[in-house]
Design a protein that fits this description.
By secondary structure, the protein is α+β, with helices and mostly antiparallel strands. Helices cover about 15% and strands about 30% of the residues. The strands form three sheets. Strands 10, 11, 12, 13, 14, 15, 16 and 17 form an eight-stranded mixed beta sheet that branches. The protein has a five-stranded antiparallel beta sheet with strand order 2-1-3-4-5. The model has no long low-confidence stretch (mean pLDDT about 90).
């Protein structure tokens, strides 16, 4: 959209206390949103051509606001011209997990609202994402971009570069990795189990346990292999892959003499992602 006819695509949300893009704000559109320039109430909408933007509620944007649209004869209201369908920008997640909403009673006065918006403007735009979304974003970035973009995990805000840790770093032992608050990644190989639908993931990095070295092993059940991966596991069997682990740490099994990782049932925000090399 040209600067001559700008569309409001990012607004301040009172309940999350953050700036949010219309694409994700549309998912909780009953919350309270304000224009970031003139502070009037707006609401996220999606046009019939799948363009996401914020529309003024019950009034026009202020005279000096760049998002003001003059009333039209047909509607008597300022209506944003969304034009032809445009490709929506790829949103880089700034949060691994669900957004935290804090319901408020009443609305802030103009001075308080100005203070809230000024503070929120200094934070990354809030874009929640799953582990799959975050891994996709990281894989699409250069190292320079990874150092520029920020990601919040469990309340800790770091750059994408700092949020991912290479399991092959020999300077770190198994307890030196932050399995809960970072995403640990590294090379592995997938092998087929004797039972149909089961696969094993063996990480190349081995850790010293009781004077022996053991790789991290992960068992994939049929539910995981059929529902949770973009790439069919059978297509990358016996091939080099990159695994991404979050929120689950290796535990040594003395009976089986191996390091194992038990994956959570809910794999949206933690567990394992696999990408073919």
């Amino acid at each position: 959209m040209s600067d001559k006819n700008p569309i409001l695509t990012v607004a301040y949300c009172l309940e999350t206390n953050r700036f949010e893009p219309a694409q994700t704000a549309h998912l909780h559109q009953r919350d309270t949103f304000y224009c970031t320039k003139c502070y009037i109430l707006v609401t996220p909408v999606c046009s019939c051509k799948k363009n996401y933007f914020f529309r003024a509620l019950g009034t026009l944007h202020e005279e000096n606001c760049r998002y003001r649209k003059e009333p039209t004869e047909s509607t008597g209201q300022g209506t944003a011209k969304t034009g032809a369908a445009v490709q929506q920008p790829f949103l880089i997640p700034s949060l691994l997990g669900k957004i935290t909403r804090v319901p408020r009673i009443g609305r802030p006065d103009p001075a308080e609202l100005a203070t809230l918006i000024a503070a929120a403007s200094k934070l990354p735009i809030l874009v929640p994402g799953t582990l799959e979304n975050v891994v996709d974003a990281w894989c699409s970035m250069s190292t320079k971009e990874q150092k520029k973009e920020f990601l919040t995990i469990n309340g800790i805000n770091r750059s994408y570069f700092e949020s991912f840790d290479f399991i092959g770093n020999k300077e770190k032992d198994i307890n030196d990795f932050d399995w809960d608050n970072k995403i640990i990644y590294g090379g592995a190989k997938i092998s087929k189990g004797s039972t149909q639908g089961y696969y094993f993931v063996d990480c190349y990095r081995k850790f010293p346990i009781q004077e022996n070295y053991f790789p991290v092993k992960i068992i994939l059940n049929p539910e995981f292999t059929s529902n949770n991966q973009k790439t069919y596991i059978s297509e990358i069997e016996s091939k080099d892959v990159t695994v991404f682990l979050h929120g689950c740490r290796p535990v040594f099994d003395p009976k089986r003499q191996r390091l194992i990782i038990n994956l959570p049932k809910d794999l949206r925000y933690g567990g394992l992602c696999i990408r073919a090399k």
